[in-house]
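Z., the sequence and structure:
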Amino acid sequence: MILVEGKMSWQPLVAAVIASIWMVECREARAQADRPTIVTVCAPCHGTDGAGRDIETPNLAGQSGIYLYNQIIAFQKGTRRHPAMRGIARELTENEIREIVGYYAILPPP
């Protein structure tokens, strides 16, 4: 509760929580609307929501864009090893990498 005009009130706290939830939902909706087509390559394992599908698959949502970019480049070069990711990363163009990174970096963490 919050003290408002000498009285305890839940209203400001409730309003703040609702506003916070609304901002997260708007961010998620914007990300979904702006989802590049290339994300369909990542979705089978990482989901369009960026949540890894099993313990072996990392979450991408909310990760730093620089981190995501560097990992994809490491898979391309073979300095980070994973058979499926190496094959996928090698086929990505610079623009596609940037689209993937930009998309997953703005999603809220799962």
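The first strand starts at residue 2 and ends at 4. The mean pLDDT is 82.

Let me know what you think.
H.
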